[in-house]
Structure formats: structure tokens, C-alpha cells
């Protein structure tokens, strides 16, 4: 590399925050692996995929009730890897990996160490197949202690740290949805955040109603773009919604 080309590359990296080599000439594809907080009907996954612009595309392979173990045992992870094998030659392929809500339950039989190890295994397999893993920390629950309307319970703290550790161990990108969503619901408060709750009675504080899917899908999209600026061109912008989210306003 000549001195001139070195400085051109360095300046480009400073301008966008990532090396130019991160930009693929292939269109992006997104394969979403996760539990019900990613899945169709109650998760953020379709809210992430809806604003994709052709030739980018994606598939929501989230599974309600899944742990990292049951997702693999049930064949859902095999579906993810099949999509990778079938598409990686023609598409810049990304896999969001978001678990924790069910793994943390005492009935799951999964220790925190096993949870982290399973995430490491998923991420390494994605990389071995030529894809890019996006370790996505869990969507926060919108549960607030009594008389603490701006202090939602940080119930997935340990799972967040395990996902971050798995990303570090595998050299993968972290999409810190847990931190972003917890900060957001704390800022807008209990009443506003529960407008995103699932069900006609809006009592389900884990899953999302259709509008909540749009809001938190946009949050994930924006977080991905922050980490992978080259992907911005594949998402239809929604400045009004993004501004509301990142300025801590109800959306």
C-alpha cells in the first residue's frame, strides 16, 4: 500500500467509524434467530425487516418459547444455517442472535455459563459459514416496581453481560438492544412504555403489540446501522420515529 492510499483508507475509516472493507458489494440479507421477543406476532423482528429496501431482504426465524438449547434441538437453528448456506454466496448475510428470556428461567435447565457457551457456538458457526453474527441483547421487559415509574426492573442484566462476553470471545458485533430499550422505557416512563404491551388488555409486558414491533424494530435497525454504517442504504429511514426514540420521547 502506498502512503497516499494508506491515508485515504485511514480517513475513510475515521469518517464512517468502520473500515472500508466492511462494505460488501453484495446486497444484505438478514436471518433472525431468537425467542418470542424476536418472533412473528409479539417480537421486534418483523419491525426490523419491514423497512428493508430491495435487493436486501430477510427472514424471521424467531421461535416463541425457545431457549438456546431448544432452538437448536427443534431444528430452528438448522433452518438458520440452511438459509446461510443457500444465500451467502450472493448476499452479505447477517444473523441476529437474541435469546435470554427463556434461558434464564429456573425450569430451563440452562446455566448462565451454558447460555453463554451456546451463544458462542451459534456465533462461531455463522462465521464459519461466511455470515456475520450480530449478538443482540434481549429486549427489556416493561415491568416497573411500585411507585418507580421511571425505573424498570433490569431483569435481564446477567443475560446481557453473557451475550456481550460471547460477542467478545468470538470477535462478533454486539447490538445492545437491552441497554437501549431499558434506557428508553425508563426515560418515557411506565404509562407511555406500556402502550407497547401485547394483548387487548396491554398486560403483557414482555411481548409487543403491532405498534411496539415497529418502534423496537426501528430501534434495532438504528443500532445495526450504528455498528454497520454500510447497511444504512438498505433501510427505509423513518426520521420521525428515530428522532423520538433517541430523544427519549414516546413514539
What does this structure look like?
The protein is α/β, with parallel strands linked by helices. The chain is 44% helix and 13% strand. The chain has helices spanning 3-16, 45-49, 68-73, 76-87, 112-128, 157-170, 177-193, 210-227, 239-246, and strands at residues 28-34, 57-60, 92-98, 132-136, 173-175, 197-198, 204-208. A five-stranded parallel beta sheet has the order 2-1-3-4-5, sandwiched between helices. A two-stranded antiparallel sheet has the order 6-7. Strand 6 (197-198) and strand 7 (204-208) form a beta hairpin. It is globular. Mean pLDDT is 93; it is low at 1-21.
Main pleated-sheet profile: 5 strands, parallel
- Cα-atom radius of gyration: 18 Å
Our estimate of the beta-strand percent is 5-15%
**For the largest beta sheet, what order do the strands appear in spatially?**
2-1-3-4-5
Low-confidence stretches: 1-21
Can you give the helix content as a percent range?
Answer: 40-55%
Number of strands: 7
What is the average per-residue confidence, as pLDDT, rounded to a whole number? 93
- Structural class determined from secondary elements: alpha/beta
The run of helices and strands is: HEHEHHEHEHEHEEHH
Instruction: Using the alpha-carbon principal axes, give the shape.
Output: globular
Write the layout of secondary structure elements.
Blueprint: H1 3-16, E1 28-34, H2 45-49, E2 57-60, H3 68-73, H4 76-87, E3 92-98, H5 112-128, E4 132-136, H6 157-170, E5 173-175, H7 177-193, E6 197-198, E7 204-208, H8 210-227, H9 239-246
Parallel strand pairs: 1-2, 1-3, 3-4, 4-5
Antiparallel strand pairs: 6-7
